[in-house]
Design goal:
The chain is of the alpha/beta class. The relative contact order is 0.16. The structure holds adenosine-5-diphosphoribose (APR) and P-hydroxybenzoic acid. The site of P-hydroxybenzoic acid has 9 residues, from loops.
Length: 414
Amino acid sequence: MSIAAAGLRPHVVGQGTHREDTVFMRTQVAIIGAGPAGLLLGQLLTNAGIDNVVLELRSADYVLSRVRAGVLEEGMAGMLDEAGAGRRMRAEGLPHDGFDLAFDGGHHRIDLHGLSGGKRVMVYGQTEVTHDLMEKRRDTGGLSVYEAVNVQPHDFDGPNPYVTYDKHGTSHRIDCDFVAGCDGFHGVSRRSVPDSAITAYERVYPFGWLGILAEIPPVSHELIYANHPRGFALCSMRSMTRSRYYVQCPLDDRVEDWSDDRFWDEIRRRLPADVAERMVTGPSFEKSIAPLRSFVAEPMRFGRLFLAGDAAHIVPPTGAKGLNLAASDVRYLFDGLREYYADGSSAGIDDYSRRALARVWKAERFSWWMTNTLHRFPDQGAFGQKIQEAELNYLVSSRAASTSLAENYVGLPY
Ligand code: APR
Ligand code: PHB
């Protein structure tokens, strides 16, 4: 008997009803977290006629104030189009056909487009992605509850899960068919699963990234990833007038330790001379330090609770994979849910965790490898530096090695 025939098919969302000071509601999919994973899943479900509610701890303004990564694989860009939220990305995003690897005083282009059979990446900030998805959700009447506190999923190991939360002193309960935990690394969804049911794999790196945003033209029209004995550096951008730059720094450094002058001096020292010379500098308007971590929780499904995006896994930013992995999780989860509601088949949702994790681990490997190859580790010494340079030399001189790098960077197939 199919799940639908078994009577588990949902009721469409009803009017909120009051009972004993709790507001009751029903939906098909309750989504926890309004980051890119939650909003993208919500929009695809809405477009497919599947009712959903998004519950977010923070305010919409706070969510939009977070500065995050900005490189979209073609698969992710295509999903934004599919969600109906890709118009501005197509108009204002910057398609990139390659990037530079800088090491040992020189720099070498990786021809992503040529090496990957015609693929490219789109440079478009995650904040913009979130903004566009929020706007689309508003336009299509999707319900999002911001500043929802004490969000808690319940009974997801049985047929009747529900989520409770408080807002403005009122308790709410949403009964649903499924809960999507899209609430990031520090969210409540993964923590609601008993420890005995989950296995976590983790590596914490002994350094962070100090990132700045500045209203200056990027030093190059493509990204530059730099290995240097003083530490890693990255030149990225948000537009042709806004640069996003990073330097590797010790984990115990504080933002206050880094004046703009110190930042510009340090990044210039880590870049090849010709690049450093043409770098335009200016006042930064955002500066933050982020730790680097690799993390995977297995499995990604617990009964009727599914984890997606940072709630299930973290990658160091070196390979620009965090946002893109959130998108591939959503691809598999949305396809499974659509199949369930359209055909009453649970085959897709049953296979969700296996499919998602297979791709997650490949991106984890790639991000770990890029991090190891490009950063200065405390114990690496002169020998370790030489080995990194030899590996980078091999990468840029071997078509096979460059092809592997390009294939992973533009994104493995879903
Ligand atoms: N209840 C409700 N919402 C919560 C809770 C909670 N208890 N805890 C966290 N959240 C919200 C966060 O405020 C955030 O808006 O969940 C959202 C999770 O969004 P992201 O952290 O952006 O994660 P995700 O959507 O998986 O996107 C992955 O975004 O964070 C980057 O590096 C990450 O690039 C990757 C991508
Ligand atoms: C960024 O633009 O913020 C960015 C780009 C590439 C990365 C990481 C971050 O690998």
